[in-house]
Design a protein that fits this description.
The protein is an alpha/beta fold. The protein is built from 5 helices and 10 strands. α1 links the parallel β6 and β7. 36% of the residues are buried.
Length: 181
Amino acid sequence: MPGLALAPYPVVPIADCSNLDGGKLVGNSKAKTGAVKHSAADTNVTLSPVLLVDSDAEFQERFAASLSKFGCRLEILVDPSKLDSVLKSLDPSVLVVSTDNQEANALELVADLRASLRWADLPIFVVGNRLATKVKLSAYEVGADAALSKGTGLGELTARALGCVRRKSEKSEQPENSEPG
């Protein structure tokens, strides 16, 4: 797909994406490249990706590197006009939309997605280089689940994204008719 690029970072083996300690990321820097593993079943599992809508190549690289330390992959969409079809084909764990993207208004994208029942449960995070309090409040008003600054919030963004990946992975492993228990 034009505009969609898989970050060139290796997937590293991890027990799961729960290696979070009080909101701080605790990675395994000695992990070797390989298949993602989930400790509960001790089998190879394909984790749903994180989808980033942003044209900032530097941030794409930093975010992808941060996620890859935990075995999670980042898919990048530069052209927001293809968002609906990419969401349908990827079924990401979380959508991260940048306010810095000149191609589209991030808040309008969030509002449009929240207007659709299909994406009502999709976690959506809004990020930007300098998010003023007013912009953050507007993001929450239109349905964003988080609003974070790119510079100071990369660790927090990664931690929240990993939480979404883990929840989606756990949900997909449960039998369809099972009750939480």
